Structures are given as structure tokens and as C-alpha cells.
Amino acid sequence: MGMNKNTIFSWASFLMFLVGTALVLLGVLKYKEYAIGFSTTGIGFFFISWVFNALKGRV
């Protein structure tokens, strides 16, 4: 019972979404002076997560 490519893309997408959320929350709640950088990087993770989710079943 191994993981196929769709399962790997799903997990990668989910984990990248969690990392993006953590980065945005860190920027907003803890490091307010660096909020722009943290939020931009977190949004980048959201976009990469969306691309991985869109690639499921196509590669």
C-alpha cells in the first residue's frame, strides 16, 4: 500500500498550505515589523500549494 503521485501531490499541497498559513500568522501576530515579508512569503506558499493541487491527476 504505497502512495501514488496523486497522494503525494495532495500531501505536499496540504503541508505547503499549513506552512503558508503559519508564515502569515507569524507575520501578523508576532513579528509586526516584518509582516510584509512574512505575508508575501506565505502567499507565495499558498500559490505553490494551489499549483500542486491543480497538478493532481495531470502529471
TrEMBL record:
Residue spans crossing the bilayer: 7-28, 34-55
Record keywords, A-Z: Membrane, Transmembrane, Transmembrane helix
Top-level division of the source organism's lineage: Bacteria
Record flagged with keyword Membrane: yes
Protein name (database record): CAL67264 family membrane protein
Organism from which the protein derives: Christiangramia oceanisediminis
